[in-house]
From TrEMBL:
InterPro entries: TPR-like_helical_dom_sf
Source lineage: Eukaryota, Viridiplantae, Streptophyta, Embryophyta, Tracheophyta
Organism: Platanthera zijinensis
Highest taxon above the source species: Eukaryota
SUPFAM superfamilies attached to this UniProt entry: TPR-like
Listed name of the protein: Tetratricopeptide repeat protein
């Protein structure tokens, strides 16, 4: 490195206008970044709470948290994962038409996310009797992550609701 371009690495020299260094980040940009970080933290906290209550089987509470993420943070890309959780919970509480509609929609926005493809396969097979569509969705899911062919994985690791686990079992066993 040429001595002409040497910038001291000691913290005392970092971006100090008095020493003639230019700081390309404005105070407004710093504030905006901090505000975005706080929003992301808040959304992630709610998403984690939704997952936690889903794992405990407290589906109405999980639904509330997933819905809050979707409503309050729809501008953040990971709100799509809250839509996945919401669709799984809607299926469990009996709103299967809406659940399948949301699964289909999310399977497009999160194309390649194996969980939504596996869930959609189970729902299409059991509720719509659409074997070919279910097979296509399940092929996508298991090519991306073979774990979705294992009932214990979706039940114990992914904490799918019981009715969706049952639907996946019916699909896998073709019963």
């Amino acid at each position: 490195m040429s001595a002409l371009f040497h910038i001291p690495s000691h913290p005392a020299f970092a971006a100090s206008p008095s020493l003639g260094f230019f700081d390309p980040v404005t105070d407004g940009e710093r504030d905006s970044s901090s505000a975005l970080s706080l929003r992301i933290d808040g959304a992630l906290r709610l998403l984690d709470l939704g997952r936690e209550f889903q794992a405990k089987g407290e589906f109405s509470r999980a639904l509330d948290y997933y819905t809050q993420v979707i409503n309050d943070y729809k501008d953040l890309a990971f709100s799509e994962y809250a839509r996945v959780g919401r669709a799984l919970i809607l299926y469990e509480i009996g709103d299967r038409e809406q659940a399948i509609t949301e699964m289909e929609d999310v399977s497009i926005s999160l194309k390649g996310y194996p969980e939504i493809h596996a869930a959609l396969a189970a729902a299409l097979y059991t509720d719509k009797h659409a074997s070919l569509l279910a097979e296509n969705q399940f092929t996508i899911a298991t090519l991306l992550d073979p774990h979705y062919a294992d009932i214990s994985y979706v039940r114990d690791k992914k904490h799918w609701p019981p009715s969706l686990v049952c639907s996946l079992h019916k699909f896998i066993t073709l019963s």
